[in-house]
UniProtKB/TrEMBL annotation, chains A, B:
UniProt name for this protein: TetR family transcriptional regulator
Stored InterPro entries: Homeodomain-like_sf, HTH-type_TetR-like_transc_reg, HTH_TetR, NicS_C, Tet_transcr_reg_TetR-rel_C_sf
Domain HTH tetR-type as annotated: residue spans: 14-74
Superkingdom to which the source organism belongs: Bacteria
Entry keyword annotation includes Hydrolase: no
Pfam families per the UniProt record, alphabetical: TetR_C_29 (PF17938), TetR_N (PF00440)
Residues of the DNA-binding region: 37-56
Keywords: DNA-binding
Transmembrane segments: none
Record-level Gene Ontology MF annotations: DNA binding
DNA sequence: CTTGACTTCCGAACTAGTTAGTACATTTTT
DNA sequence: AAAAATGTACTAACTAGTTCGGAAGTCAAG
């Protein structure tokens, strides 16, 4: 399976599809579902519009494929954090930092989720793949809270989904609302200093919330 | 300026424009800038597409008008809270509750901001009206923190913009990500019970953060 | 290892339907 | 009468999706 002739076409369906998805991810995340143009996606691809329809069938189906792919990427990165061995507070801080870093590193994903919300999560609903997700993180948080309450680190029995929401909200908002927030307050949320400050801030806030009563 | 004939056309530019803006707000916030259809907006109006172009010139200009109007509405509602007389913690809790209630009551606004972020706040940048906004809330927060530090209620000297972001993030996310979050965790974020719990939760979290060190 | 038939993969040009925006005439108000 | 406001009908451009033809890979038989 080595290289072929230099000039002729080399069929590589795998790569072609990946290529399309890469470009489509960018286009959808910058222009939205309705705003993205199939022709524009095709042009930026090293293949043609014909291929987009050959492999994905329609614009919406392509969008769904992009969405699923983005979610799948996270699922793999998540998990395997080995938090059970850490003391509760440190485990929680590690989990929060991971969420924070993920959103910071994947603005495309954040934007796609925003777009999906504008569409009332209609496409997500049709995809079982995506629906059965993120549930593990809730169990992780619940376990941490339980351990913290047992050893006296925490004093408040909070709902793990609420805690997850609080963490997500902060991490997500920083990225999703970067532009309007930055414009209004003339603050660049992507400066390293700011990132670092926010990273500890959200962790401190959640920890102090759980410690208080 | 009393009533005119019952059947003939009555010119009412003021009302016509308001009518257009009302419908356009809904359409843009449900379908996005690219997804919204001028024809659809026109149809739902009690006037015609001709009038949309007569008064607003273009689809984008209409979108901008919608955006400015939404922001203006808040500015008026904000302010006048008379927080200076309340003790620091209570002042902060009142401010947070106000932000929370506003976002909860104005999903259209929240969605428009999300949409504007997808477009990198490009339209907002072109509108001075919107840019010079929300700055007052920062001064309000700063004053509360200062008073709290002075009288020993708070122990942490936090950046007021960061605090505002933390509050906004939570309140905004609940509304903006209602659909994806609800789908994944099978939780309806618009239930009265949930709303009430979250309302106190964000306040408790911010307060405990400022009290801790 | 060559042939050829079959399948998979791909390109260029086209189409049918949609959509933002307009021309022109008409009515209402001052 | 002049200006402001409105209705009807149209168009030029765009855009998702398709048609048709053909090249590249596969595999079995000779």
């Amino acid at each position: 399976m080595a290289e072929r002739q230099i000039n002729g076409r080399k069929n590589d369906p795998q790569r072609t599809q990946e290529d399309i998805l890469d470009v489509a991810t960018e286009e959808f995340s910058t222009h939205g579902l309705a705003g993205a143009r199939v022709d524009q996606i095709a042009e930026r691809t090293r293949t043609s519009k014909r291929m987009i329809y050959y492999y994905f069938g329609s614009k919406e189906a392509l969008y769904l494929a992009v969405l699923e792919r983005s979610y799948r990427k996270i699922r793999t990165l998540e998990a395997d954090l080995e938090l059970a061995n850490l003391p509760p507070e440190q485990a929680l801080r590690t989990l929060i930092a991971t969420t924070f870093d993920h959103d910071e590193a994947n603005p495309d994903f954040v934007r796609l989720v925003s777009i999906e919300n504008i569409h009332h999560a209609a496409h997500m609903l049709r995809s079982e793949a995506i629906r059965d997700l993120n549930v593990s993180v809730i169990q992780t948080i619940e376990a941490i809270i339980d351990r913290g309450l047992a050893d006296g680190t925490f004093r408040r029995r909070a709902d793990p989904i609420d805690i997850h929401m609080m963490i997500s909200a902060f991490c997500f908002f920083r990225v999703s609302n970067r532009y309007t927030f930055g414009t209004i307050f003339r603050r660049d949320l992507s400066e390293p200093q700011t990132i670092e400050r926010h990273r500890t801030m959200i962790a401190d806030a959640v920890v102090s919330y759980l410690k208080s009563r």
